[in-house]
Structures are given as C-alpha cells and as structure tokens.
Design a protein that fits this description.
This protein is of the alpha/beta class. The chain has helices spanning 5-10, 12-27, 40-46, 68-85, 97-108, 134-137, 155-165, 183-192, 205-209, 248-251, 259-271, 277-290, 293-315, 345-354, 382-386, 391-406, 411-426, and strands at 29-30, 57-58, 61-62, 89-91, 114-117, 140-143, 169-172, 196-200, 222-226, 237-241, 329-333, 357-358, 360-362, 376-380. The protein binds pyridoxal-5'-phosphate. Residues 34, 96-98, 101, 125, 127, 173-175, 200, 202-203, 226, 237 line the site of pyridoxal-5'-phosphate.
Length: 438
C-alpha cells in the first residue's frame, strides 16, 4: 500500500524525506531511551481532519460553536486516561511534555519561588529548573541528584537539602535514571516541609501501567507525562492531578478553585489557546491501546530486555552507571576502559550510530567530562521491544555494541559491515506504524 499518496504527488521533496526517515528508523536499532513507535491507528488519528477544528475551552464550555463531536472525543480521552492511571483528574490538552510542566509552575508557584529538581547533567529535564529554561530563570532551582558514588538517590541527603531550603515544590522524575523511584519516600520528605510533590513520568509511564515500576499517582499532587516516548501515542503531554489541594489553606487561602481547576486554568487560558484535537483523538486511541494486556506485556518486556542487555554488556567487561538497571534504560560508563581504551560518550555514540545503533551520549554520575563530551552512552529498550525483540536479541545487540567499541580505531571499515547485518536483522521484525514483517 502506498503511504501518503497526495503528499507524494504535491510535495515530493517532503514526501521523500519522510520516507527516508521511516526507512532509517526501520533498518537501524533505535535505542534512544525516549523513543518508541506509534501504531498505524495513532498515526491515522493524528493525521486526521480534526486538525482543522478550533475548540478553545473544555468539553461543554467552549468559546467556539460546533463542538458536538470534538467534545465526545476529548471526553473519551479524559475517561480513558483517568481509568488507565487511576487518576482523579486529567488534562489532555498540553501540546507536549514541556508545556505540561510549564502548567505545573503556573498552577502551584509564584515567580521567584523555590523548587527542588535535578539539573540536566544529573538526569533532570530542562523544565525542572534548569538555568537555560524558563523554569530556571523565573524560579529558583534547589538542585539534587543521584549520589555520585552509588548512582542512586540518597534520601537522607535529599531530606537534609529539603529541610534546609524549604522549597515549595519537589520534582521527581528523570531522563536518565536507570533505577526505580520510590515516590513514597519523596512524599514523606515533601510532607515534612509542606511542599507539593510532582512526578514527571514522561520516560517511564508504560512501566507504571505494566506494574513494574512504583506508581506515583496515589501519592503525588500532580503527575505530568508525555504521550509519545514509550507510551506510543502522539507527541503531546497530559497532567494527572488530585482534585483537592492538600496545601490550599497555606498557599492559596481564599481561592475558590481546587487543584484540578487550577491545573485546567493553567493550561487554558493560562498558557495555551486552542487544543490540538487530532492529537487528543490520537491520545485517546493510544490510551485504549495502553489498556490492553498486550501493552502491559510490552511494558514488562521493556524491563526484561534492559536487564538482559545490561547483563550481556557487564559480562563483556563494560561498566554501567549505578551498576545496572531496573527500568528501560542503561548507561554505559566508559570511565572503565574497554579493549584497553577509555572512550568518551561522544565518540562511542557517534561510532555506534555509524554502525546503525542509534543512541545518545550522556553524563554519568560524577562525570568529569563536559555535557558536550561525557563519559557515558544511554541505551533504551522501548523501541526494540515494540518491534517484538526479546532477551536473545539483546545478546546479539550487546555483541554488535562490543564490536563497535573494539574496532573504534577502524570504525570506517567496520561500521558499514555491522550496519548491513543490523539492516538484515531488522527485517525479521514488525515496525509498528511503519511496516509489517516483510
Ligand atoms: C521528554 C521529557 C519531557 C518533555 O517532553 P517534550 O515533549 O520533549 O517537551 C519532560 N520531562 C521528562 C522527564 C522528559 O523525559
């Protein structure tokens, strides 16, 4: 079946580039931890005619007419999202993960307020108070991060910082933390100082749905997420929240709005205009897919694959940040020399990409190299798992990773060979949204 026949006709330049990107993604190993594959159904909803519609406001309270059907669509997304995560409230309108996080600041803080979050080099997101982001210029970040020695959170240290600085909000969530996060422990710290606890589960939502990672929804005031990444929905964000604000008396005395209402106001009209209805329809479709037993199996297999890959590279003599993984990602720590050589994250990531293993260089805890060079490479398993790969495939992939590192001095000759092998290997698997098994 020909994809995008109209685009092919009217704009062959863009059509060709989209096709090439899809070929590239189905003939290489996509190991960027924040990526996976959306289904054909999600892509169809995303590319639908709903993109034409304006519907500022919320279902039943819009500033435009003609919303009979789009209200039903947004309500379905809301019902499915609440059921999926067991949440009291959900807002499905954020344009992406960063705007969802922006709405949290708008709903909970005032300019200049203090929050605790992880700096980007420690594995935090830009929107957790990083200096180059609005969250770092308009608010004051009190930094915390994994212990440089163990690579894990040290709750005593975190409690001490919280007691000393008394931030009004604590972010818990990461882009590069390979271990489980115990939200209950963070809740205990936050409660000691009357701070809001906000979880950012953009990276790990499918693991929570599958029950292989602790669930922040019962204990956090707000939970933010993207609907792309391992959830395999459209590129968008959503916010889960409690209805009542546990600190209403202290921080918002006299306000007539509860927490859920403040979250909604923060998104619209606080930060955004019209919701992207095609994207919301696609999010509803993704929530439906994520409610199936198959999706839970995918979530469980992501972790099994990451553990299998971790064991395989450890057995080959590689070091991992934090010693291993119990999530979807692992970080190779090249401070330990491999094949007699200490690589940088940057050179390793580049060589891997030439060989068809697409990942990213990443800081390791206590890294002495700059964020533009680093000593680590972050590897994720969601995309491989979505293609149907299991533990035996991880063994094979560890072998290719090792061959790249071993032959890094002659990578120009070795990479094309490995890349060819990987392209052949990928043909055995379905690539959701791109192709069935050939
Ligand atoms: C990806 C990510 C986001 C932001 O998502 P965008 O859609 O890229 O804006 C926020 N928080 C975390 C932890 C993320 O990994």
């Amino acid at each position: 079946m020909e994809r995008y026949p109209h685009l092919k006709q009217s704009d062959p330049e863009i059509y060709e580039l989209i096709r090439k990107q899809a070929d590239y993604e189905s003939g290489t190993l996509k190991m960027i931890a924040s990526e996976s594959y959306a289904s054909f159904s999600v892509l169809e909803a995303c590319g639908s005619t709903l993109t034409n519609k304006y519907a500022e406001g919320y279902p039943g309270a819009r500033y435009y007419e003609g919303n009979e059907f789009v209200d039903k669509i947004e309500n379905l997304a809301i019902e499915r999202g609440k059921a999926l995560f067991g949440a009291e409230h959900i807002n499905v309108q954020p344009y992406s993960g960063s705007p969802a996080n922006h709405a949290v600041y708008q709903a909970l803080l005032k300019t200049g307020d203090k929050l605790m979050g992880m700096p980007v080099p420690s594995g935090g997101h830009l929107t957790h108070g990083w200096k180059a982001n609005f969250s770092g210029t308009d608010y004051v970040q009190i930094p915390y991060g994994p212990d440089p020695g163990t690579g894990k959170f040290d709750m005593d240290q975190i409690r001490e910082t919280a007691r000393k600085e008394r931030p009004k909000m604590i972010w818990v969530g990461a882009t590069a933390y390979p271990h489980k996060i115990e939200y209950k422990d963070f809740r205990a710290v936050a409660d000691e100082i009357d701070a809001y606890l906000v979880a950012d589960i953009a990276h790990i939502n499918a693991l929570i749905i599958a029950g292989v990672h602790p669930d922040p929804v019962p204990v956090c005031d707000i939970v933010t997420s993207t609907s792309h990444k391992m959830l395999r929905g459209p590129r968008a964000g959503f916010l889960l929240s409690k209805t009542e604000d546990r600190f209403q008396q202290k921080y918002f005395p006299g306000s007539k709005l509860n927490l859920a209402q403040r979250v909604d106001r923060a998104v619209f009209p606080g930060l955004q205009g019209g919701p992207h209805l095609a994207v919301i329809a696609a999010m509803a479709a993704a929530f439906k897919e994520a409610s199936t037993p198959e999706f839970k199996e995918y979530g469980r297999q992501i972790v099994k694959n990451a553990k299998a890959l971790a064991e395989a590279v450890l057995a080959k003599g590689y070091a991992l940040a934090g010693g291993g993984t119990d999530t979807h990602l692992l970080i190779l720590d090249f401070r330990k020399p491999v094949h007699g050589r200490e690589l940088t994250g940057k050179e390793a990531a580049k060589a891997l990409a030439e060989a068809g293993i697409i990942a990213n260089f990443n800081m390791v805890p206590g890294d002495h190299r700059s964020p533009f060079v680093t000593s680590g490479v972050r590897l994720g398993t969601p995309s491989l798992t979505a293609m149907g790969m299991k533990e035996p495939e991880m063994q094979k992939i560890a072998g290719w990773i090792d061959r790249v590192c071993k032959n890094i001095a002659a990578i120009e000759t070795e990479a094309p060979k490995i890349r060819q092998e990987i392209a052949e290997f990928c043909k055995q698997f379905t690539v959701p949204g791109i192709r069935s098994i050939l």
